[in-house]
Amino acid sequence: MALDISESRLDELLDALVEQGWYEWPDAIDHDLCQTLLAEVSDYEEEGELQRAGIGRGDDHQLNQTVRRDKIRWLDGSTEAQILYLQQMAELQYQLNRALFLGLFEYECHFALYNQGDFYKKHLDSFRGRANRMITTVLYLNPDWQPQWGGELVLYAEDTDRKIALIAPEMGKLAIFMSEQIPHEVLVTQQPRVSIAGWFRCNNSIAGLIDPAI
Ligand SMILES: O=C(O)CCC(=O)C(=O)O
Ligand SMILES: [Fe+2]
């Protein structure tokens, strides 16, 4: 199951990334694959194999909880569905590199579960010159998402509080945006909200450290 990306879709995606820094792609990923990935997250949740996410400032649990409330698990390619999804992101990486010369060399991603009442406050995924996350992808795994459940991804203009997009977390949809440019937040959700957040990275060297952990 290859990534179903037509020439015109690719052009639209590339133009949007260059001109506005983000792109919303409904039904990017096959719903059967999404259902399988969703079932994996349910199993992980039941077995207590999802972990509270951090915010990169040590282990201050209370601070973390005021910023983000999701639980995560990194994909490790241990199931067929994960391998299929990672292959599709590899295809996307190839296309992005071919067109935009970004030098993306790696992709990392984690499942995320936001239970009722959970959110992720406004943040940037990467800071210019500091880190090496270049492009963020978020795949949503929620069938029949209802507007009254909230849980939208809000994108903001760089350096202002102006909202530029409100993206409902609907199954199969990919949100793609420039990690260093687009501040964003996840609004409080009224229902469990499942996604796969991922990052294409380039190979930066900071203060002599090759590819430091963020
Ligand atoms: O789930 C989303 O819509 C965005 C998640 C996010 O911003 C992140 O994990 O950094
Ligand atoms: Fe983020």
Question: Overview of this structure, please?
Answer:
With 214 residues, the protein is α+β, with helices and mostly antiparallel strands. The protein has one domain (7-204): q2cbj1_9rhob like domain (Jelly Rolls), CATH 2.60.120.620. It contains four helices and 13 strands. The chain has helices at residues 7-19, 31-46, 61-67, 80-100, and strands at residues 22-25, 51-52, 71-74, 104-114, 120-123, 133-140, 153-156, 163-167, 174-178, 184-186, 193-202, 205-206, 209-210. The strands form three sheets. It has a seven-stranded antiparallel beta sheet. The longest helix is centred in the middle third of the chain and has 21 residues, at 80-100. The structure holds 2-oxoglutaric acid and fe (ii) ion. Fe (ii) ion is lined by residues 123, 125, 184.
How are the SSEs placed, and which strands pair?
Layout: H1 7-19, E1 22-25, H2 31-46, E2 51-52, H3 61-67, E3 71-74, H4 80-100, E4 104-114, E5 120-123, E6 133-140, E7 153-156, E8 163-167, E9 174-178, E10 184-186, E11 193-202, E12 205-206, E13 209-210
Antiparallel strand pairs: 1-9, 2-3, 3-4, 4-11, 5-10, 6-9, 6-11, 7-8, 7-10, 12-13
This protein binds 2-oxoglutaric acid and fe (ii) ion.
What descriptors fit this protein?
214 residues, alpha+beta, Jelly Rolls, 7-stranded antiparallel sheet, 4-stranded antiparallel sheet, 4 helices, 13 strands, disordered C terminus, binds 2-oxoglutaric acid, binds fe (ii) ion
